[in-house]
């Protein structure tokens, strides 16, 4: 299981929601089965429906990006 907080903390170079989407896509491609939304991303470009976007990116993997 991939935790959103672990992805964010483990990659301090990620500073936009768009970059986070790519990171989440890679997690989905790497074989992770579940993504846990344990924190809300605190980026200026984080959309209101951020959970839906990250879930779609995680499920589609790099095909989404």
TrEMBL record:
<protein>
    <submittedName>
        <fullName>Sulfur relay protein DsrC</fullName>
    </submittedName>
</protein>
């Amino acid at each position: 299981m991939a935790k959103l907080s672990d992805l964010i903390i483990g990659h301090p170079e990620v500073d936009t929601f768009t970059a986070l989407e790519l990171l989440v896509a890679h997690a989905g491609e790497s074989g992770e089965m579940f993504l846990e939304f344990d924190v809300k991303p605190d980026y200026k470009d984080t959309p209101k429906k951020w959970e839906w976007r990250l879930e779609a990116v995680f499920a589609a993997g790099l095909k989404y990006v």
